[in-house]
Design a protein that fits this description.
Layout (H helix, E strand, L loop, with lengths): L1 E6 L3 H10 L4 E7 L2 H5 L7 E5 L4 H11 L3 E4 L6 H14 L3 E3 L12 E3 L2 H8 L5 E4 L6 H4 L5 H4 E5 L3 H10 L6 E3 L6 H11 L1 E7 L7 H11 L2 E5 L10 H12 L6 E6 L10 H9 L2 E4 L1 H7 L6 E3 L3 H10 L5 E6 L9 H4 L7 E5 L4 H9 L8 E3 L7 H6 L3 E5 L5 H11 L6 E6 L7 E5 L1 H4 L8 E6 L31 H11 L6 E5 L5 H9 L4 E6 L2 H13 L5 E5 L14 E4 L6 H11 L4 E6 L2 H11 L7 E6 L2 E6 L2 E6 L3 E6 L10
Parallel strand pairs: 1-2, 1-4, 2-3, 4-5, 6-11, 7-8, 7-10, 8-9, 10-11, 12-15, 12-16, 13-14, 13-15, 17-18, 22-23, 22-25, 23-24, 25-26
Antiparallel strand pairs: 18-21, 19-20, 19-21, 26-30, 27-30, 28-29
Helix pairs in contact: 3-4, 9-10
């Protein structure tokens, strides 16, 4: 088994030990202190030892254990330890790998010194309180400062040895801050404020050591930064590169860690602390350009990628990084690309973080609850939102593009929903956030930001959810005369019941006529699509008119005769045949060749069509088909009396093979 020794007194060392846990390698992790050892979790293949080793002890250890590789992940300031490890490896012929901590962008307004002695000399010529964050080992150097016990606050680890070093340096308890990091910018700023510190003394500990948080906190608190520079470093590699080397030498395959983070409406202030932490701890950020600009830190690698396939490609092609954070707009579970991305990350360890959705934020701004508000997205899709609005007092919609709100207003006006009220939220969470309220007519010509969310209120929703719209809801001819055949309301209601549509059904309507069945199927399957096949141009025109008027935007008119016109259509889940032009068997054969378990409902009025459908029905097994004869009579007034007028009886055939989800008929 491949044997690895890690000198792991740093974040990088601990992360490497964690990454190797459970892998087919033997890992010996060494830390200088018991406290450092307590931060590494031992495992069946990971042993942890604490205590400082000199060069001779290292040499003896390496000779005895015959490690395949020694990884030096000690602190950048532990120069003597690094030299001892390297020399012991050289003398014992052991492989050596130095892991270098990533540096931070150094500010131009900070004071830089080479060591603690120079820092103390500089501070002797200054005034004001001092916050030392350089640890306890060099406190004795700073003890020579004039007014040391009155000027200096020391933040040290909550350990007996640290407190003893403070006592020996002459620092009173009121000046000791015993805490364990990591420390956020807010925590650092609060500490500086409490100390009334004019100076913050730190080592250039890099991103992993919290240097960036100290820098930003010092600026916020108005304190100057005094930085003790790193001693000369041996050549080495980043943590990600070290992992790649170990992976190759030990024959391992590591799974990158990917956090898919919903950042909320957009402004960093609206993101959760969990998301902010994921951004800070990532080796690499992926997201849209505007997100990267808002969240990226100077020097941190970032990739502009939005499409799920593009994001997955970035992760696959950049294996030098181990921790990716993918920034997703809004809430990761609410109309997010996360749904399509997750199946592409099967080779990664994935965690999804939610964000504040534009729905919850807009409702909060308006002071309303969203527990009963249905949602729809018009961003990159054509959702039949009109029917949703007719059935609900409020509907939430996400729009897309600079004219998204304008196009929505036009649709509402065209569908007879001009009385609705729209609340448009622009650039929610940003400083220039704006909410505009008005009718579709008032808002149709206004300019809105592409980052807009809308709540539509219908003062008089119908609430009707059953099928069978009244016949007069459909236009049948330019002059009102019956120029195009139409499936009557009662027959249509029964056919819709037999179809058993789902929200995502993909439907063919063959011989669609006025489109009455097409429209109702589309309204019942708002996340699906209906393809209305019609050979007569006049009828096809009417389908488009009726679809627009009734808000069935997910209907596509296919001009032509079935089955020829159906060859390139998507695979159907449901097929309705209202007119076959004598091609009934050929149409059904084509539909079943594309989707063997498609559910088929066909109507027939003539005996010839009944005969043809009866013949087709025989090809289905027992329990897979049924035929219903529907006779409908409608009342009419004749003087002081009312009589019943019979409509043509209609045969309704339903066929579906048992293999279909949901079972047989």
């Amino acid at each position: 088994m491949f044997k690895i020794c890690i000198f792991a007194g740093t974040t990088e060392g601990r992360e490497l030990a964690e990454l190797l846990k459970g892998r087919p390698v033997s890992v010996s992790a060494f830390t200088a202190t018991e406290y450092g050892g307590s931060l590494i979790e031992a495992a069946e293949n990971v042993s942890v030892s604490s205590g400082r080793l000199d060069e001779g002890e290292m040499r003896a250890l390496f000779s005895k254990e015959r490690y395949d590789l020694v990884v030096d992940a000690t602190h950048p300031y532990a120069a003597v330890v690094t030299e001892n490890i390297a020399k012991a490896c050289e003398e014992t012929g052991t492989g050596y790998l130095r892991v270098l901590r990533e540096g931070s962008a150094l500010p131009g307004d900070a004071v830089f010194v080479s060591d603690a002695k120079e820092a103390a000399s500089f501070l002797d010529e200054t005034e004001g309180s001092i916050l030392l964050t350089t640890g306890s080992k060099e406190l004795s150097v700073f003890a020579s400062l004039k007014g040391f016990s009155e000027r200096v606050f020391a933040r040290v680890l909550p350990m007996e040895s640290s407190l003893k070093a403070c006592e020996e340096a002459g620092l009173p308890p009121s000046r000791i801050i015993a805490m364990q990091g990591p420390f956020t910018e807010e925590m650092n700023a609060a500490t500086l404020s409490m100390c009334h510190a004019s100076w913050l003394v730190t080592k250039e500990s890099g991103k992993a050591g919290g240097f960036d948080e100290k820098l930003s906190a010092a600026r916020k608190a108005g304190a100057r930064l005094l930085v003790i520079g790193r001693p000369p470093q041996r050549d080495g590699v980043s943590l990600g590169e070290a992992v790649n080397i170990i992976e190759e030498r030990a024959g391992l395959i590591f799974r990158p860690s990917v956090i898919v983070a919903g950042i909320g409406p957009g402004a960093p202030e609206s993101a959760t602390l969990e998301v902010i932490r994921a951004v800070k701890e990532a080796d690499c950020l992926i997201g849209a350009k505007r997100m990267i600009q808002a969240y990226s830190e100077e020097g941190k690698p970032a990739f502009d990628a939005v499409a799920p396939a593009a994001i997955a490609k970035v992760i696959e092609e950049n294996r030098q990084f181990r921790r990716f954070t993918v920034l997703m707009s809004g809430d990761s579970g609410f109309y997010s690309g996360t749904k399509k991305l997750l199946p592409m990350l099967s080779g990664c360890d994935v965690k999804v973080l939610p964000g504040v959705s534009s729905l919850s934020l807009l409702c909060a701004r308006l002071g309303i609850s969203y527990e009963d508000i249905p949602t729809a997205s018009l961003h990159g899709r054509d959702y039949p939102i009109e029917d949703l609005i007719r059935r609900n007092a409020r509907v939430f919609a996400m729009t897309g593009g600079s004219d998204g709100v304008n196009r929505l207003c036009e649709r509402l006006i065209g569908a007879g929903l001009a009385d609705t009220i729209l609340h448009v939220g622009e650039r929610l969470s940003y400083p220039d956030e704006k909410i505009t309220t008005g009718s579709p007519e008032e808002l149709r010509a206004m300019t809105f930001d592409s980052l807009s969310a809308v709540i539509i209120e219908d003062p008089c929703p119908s609430g009707i959810v059953t099928g069978g719209l009244p016949d007069d809801a459909f236009v049948r001819g330019a002059d009102g005369t019956e120029v195009v055949p139409m499936t009557k309301s009662e027959v249509r209601a029964v056919c819709l019941s037999k179809l058993r549509l789902t929200e995502s059904s993909v439907c063919w309507d063959i011989g669609a006529g006025t489109g009455s069945v097409s429209v109702e199927m589309a309204l019942k399957a708002p996340r699906g699509h209906v393809y209305a096949v019609e050979k007569k141009d006049a009828a096809a025109d009417l389908i488009e008119v009726n679809g627009k008027a009734l808000g069935a935007s997910n209907v596509t008119v296919v001009r032509g005769t079935a089955p020829g016109a159906c060859g390139d259509l998507p695979v159907p889940t449901h097929v309705f045949i209202g007119g076959s032009s004598g091609n009934m068997k050929e149409i059904i054969t084509l539909a079943l060749s594309k989707s063997p378990d498609a559910r088929i409902v066909a109507t027939a009025v003539t005996l010839e069509s009944v005969s043809e459908l009866t013949s087709v029905m025989k090809e289905f097994g027992p329990g897979e088909s049924e035929a219903v004869l529907l006779s409908v009579s409608r009342g009419r007034k004749a003087g002081p009396y009312h009589l019943m007028n019979a409509l043509n009886p209609v045969y309704i055939f339903t066929m579906q093979h048992k293999a279909a989800e949901g079972g047989a008929l």
